[in-house]
Design brief:
By secondary structure, the chain is α/β, with parallel strands linked by helices. The protein has one domain: Transcription elongation factor, GreA/GreB, C-terminal domain (Chitinase A, domain 3, Roll), CATH 3.10.50. It has 3 helices and 7 strands, in the order βααββββαββ. The strands form 2 sheets. Strands 5-4-3-7-6 form a 5-stranded mixed β-sheet. A two-stranded parallel sheet has the order 1-2. Strand 6 and strand 7 form a beta hairpin. About 30% of the residues are buried. The mean pLDDT is about 90.
Length: about 130
């Protein structure tokens, strides 16, 4: 589940993810997010916004140890190493979220999950990389 308010995305991320939609199958949530997103040039992306290749510190809604994940494209995904595809339910939920947001998603078997974005440990745009 993606937040009901429009997300803000980097225009470059938006274009690249649109190209992935044919692989995404019935990814209605991702399509809705892209269709309703507010777009910014990469140089204008605020530092607390989750963009592609951002490293995020998440706290499960149910407690537990915070975990680090990096939002990536499908070819770079390695869930066991914390690299989550933007086409995954959690990856879609994170795209365009901000530090402090609670994100919600459903697993393929219908279980619902939630987590809070505690911090952005790395964001390409904040480090001056506008092409990742």
């Amino acid at each position: 589940m993606v937040s009901s308010h429009p997300r803000t995305l980097s225009a470059l991320d938006h274009v690249r993810i649109l190209r992935l939609l044919p692989q995404a199958g019935a990814q209605d949530l991702l399509r809705d997010l892209l269709d309703n997103a507010d777009l910014l040039p990469p140089r204008e992306v605020p530092p607390g916004l989750v963009t592609m290749y951002s490293q995020v510190l998440l706290a499960d809604a149910g407690g537990g140890v915070p975990r680090r994940v990096t939002l990536c494209y499908p070819d770079d995904a390695e869930p066991a190493a914390g690299f989550l595809s933007v086409l995954s339910p959690l990856g879609t939920a994170l795209l365009g979220a901000r530090v402090g947001d609670e994100v919600h998603w459903s697993s393929p078997d219908g279980r619902r999950f939630g987590a809070r974005v505690l911090a952005l440990l790395f964001q390409p745009e904040a480090s001056g990389d506008f092409t990742l």
